[in-house]
Amino acid sequence: MKDITEYRKETSVFELSAHLYEMIINGKIHTFSELKEYSSRIPRGQQIQIILMNAFKLIRNLHWGFFKDMDYPSYPKVWKEIVIPDSDYKYAGNLKRNMTISSIYIAMLDIHGYTKFCRQSNRNLSKHEILDNFIQGDIGKITQENNVVSRRARGDEIILVGTNATDMINSVMSIIDYFSKRKIIKNDNLSRSRPGVKIILPDMHVTAGIAGGKIYTPLIITEDGDLSGDVVNTAARLQARANKISPAETCVIITNHAHHHFLKEQKDMDTTPEHPIKFFNSGVIEFKGTAISMYILLFREKDLYHLNYQDEMLALFESLKGDLWKNKVFPNLMNLLIKVLKSMPGFKIKAKQGSVNQITLENSDLIKFCQKSLGCYSERENYSKALNLLDRICTYLERVPIFDSLVLDYSVSINKIYNNILYT
CA dist 143 to 71, 86, 212, Å? Predict the structure, then answer.
């Protein structure tokens, strides 16, 4: 059969199927609506219904790109958001292409340790296969439980698409727990254990950015099924920020809109017990002329001390936002550092005193430096000495492995600005 007009009652199911498949493979039919229109002369019945549904799977596989493995029974929430359903066939339809899709969330994940593992096990192909099955198969099953579609973008990158903040955050948390050899999330609904031989894989940390929930920030699906739009770019930018402030450890950053919707969803669900995730307001990041407010997810018991200095962090953000460099920024930074040093676990670092002697510094020692620097700045207006002390404090803090990397990032940046002011 070269054309559908050649169809006869005597035409076999195999010949009809082969013709429709050939039209799809050759790019003459791209959508299910085109397939229905092209085959409209065929009498409707059980047989043609099966043929059309199988042909639809081929269309999905060839032309739906990121969503090629998605069907209605497996991902009903995402399906309803991104597919224009067919009026006659419940589980078929056309993918929204140039239409904007607002009720959507995107997460970008980067797996730390993937490249190192591949390099170390270069000659052990079985380990590579275990890791690939780990990422390709298991991650998809985990996200499907939350009605979230996932796809591996490159070797160590994963993209997630969901329709609400709770589904997205739960998926990311379960993936993080799965990549860890030890259980790190005290919630049976989120925690995932590695089965069988996958226990041999090393601990792998994850950085992620989650964006969405903003009505006027749409997702666009391109003709070849790729994802585009501000929500994709924002998620990627947040993931890059998470990488910067936590290059070796797990870190998840979400937008303020995702944070707001998550809290609303939790309130509407009236869940008991309370969701184990806490949030730390981490300020704003400039992206393409837009300021994006961010929150860092706190989900390990050992990280909850960060909440002790949230108020001091917010005070610093307000002084920076108002450009209050003369009266507010420096005192607020010192108060923040003092609170962090009091809240965090104890540490000891070695530092040089003079050209020869070496001293040991603890939390209390750096607190005294901060208090002295604050006194020089606020009481005696000895700005030069205060800023020299800030420079020393930043140098010391950079040597503390467990010090809050976000606070350190702000401290170093503020120190540079004050130094530029002092020496220009």
Answer: 14, 26, 17
